[in-house]
Amino acid sequence: MLVERMRAHTSTIFAEMSALALRTGAINLGQGFPDTDGPPSLLSDAAANIHGGLNQYPPGVGVPELRSAVAEHQRRFYGLDVDPDTVLITTGATEAIAAAVLALCGPGDEVVTFQPYYDSYAATIALAGAELRAVALRPPSFGFDPDELRAAFSSRTRLVLVNTPHNPTGTVFDREQLTLIGELAAEHDAVVVTDEVYEHMVYDGRAHVPMATLPGLADRTLTISSVGKTFSVTGWKVGWVNGPAELVHAVRAVKQFLTYVSGAPFQPAIAAALALPDSFYTGLATDLQRKRDLLSDGLREAGFTVFDTAGTYFVVTDVTALGFTDGAEFCWTLPERIGVAAVPVSVFCADPDLGRSLVRFAFCKRDEVLEEAVSRLAALRTEVRA
Ligand code: PMP
Ligand code: GLN
């Protein structure tokens, strides 16, 4: 029944692993979602908006106060001068990515991105009938080979899809890497679409560099983010995209026929939350950095090879030292054996061999949950010895 171009994308690993975790009662470190709520003021503002009658279609481009708050956020954190009229509110970052790809790419066009990638990228590119050109990010640093990146571009490159901080590897691209990506995009007259949903989750004193801040890039860059990660409300699905008016208009043309609008009561509440003091944002990163260390140390202790996470709330491991060659097989049996769920990185790769022995864990959970997960995972060491 399903159209040919979507046949490789029938299910998502997140749904499969969350269902398995539920069935087995395992601690779910697979799908990335926090197990605590976001700022109390955000929750009470949204509830008040629902009770106060903000329950009908908001404007197609988003409510004015949220568009202004996003523009102000870009100025406050990155010194970007954003016109609120060029901010489009979307149904999560997922819709912004889909609308951008569908608006700008069609059959015959190529999209350059990095693998492993967030799973919606490949599905969305397939939906547009365009071609994916994925450049490898390899452990231990998960950086890319500049020559490989150069070779991925062609006269058919229409779009470059960049994710920094990067899911699943936890890489935060530095200025030099981003500059090369930008130069190649400019050389091939390609649009840059940058997914920055983990922008406030960077560790060890690093800084997130938005692509739009690099010289000459703002004119060809669509910047995407969302409320789900920053405010721990992944189920709200409110995101945004901004960039040059002409590109945003193109995205809006598609967006209006995907969902039209969404999140009426949430939008004004999020506008207020974006103005929370710096202490909220730094507190989020400090807290997650501690959780990263707690889980990474525990995984190392249990016998995994653990790669450094510079940003996001994920840590990638290699399971070879535990006697496994296939991360997917490892993940399918882990909940039953040990009582913890994780996701295999191979499903995020166009070339599954690239992530064959890699497994991703999420650390956006309460300390006691991570501690319990670590103590369960410690049993793996005994299994290997036995
Ligand atoms: N991009 C990346 C890299 C993600 O990890 C996620 C996670 N959920 C999304 C986009 C989707 O964000 P949203 O829930 O706002 O659609
Ligand atoms: N972004 C989250 C992750 O990567 C959840 C994605 C999803 O459930 N689609 O785990």
UniProtKB/TrEMBL annotation:
GO terms for molecular function: transaminase activity. Keywords: Aminotransferase, Pyridoxal phosphate, Transferase. InterPro entries: Aminotransferase_I/II_large, Kynurenine-oxoglutarate_AT, PyrdxlP-dep_Trfase, PyrdxlP-dep_Trfase_major, PyrdxlP-dep_Trfase_small. Residues 26-377 form the Aminotransferase class I/classII large domain. The keyword Transferase applies. The keyword Transferase applies. Its cofactor is pyridoxal 5'-phosphate. PANTHER family: FI04487P (PTHR43807). This is Pyridoxal phosphate-dependent aminotransferase. It comes from Pseudonocardia xinjiangensis.
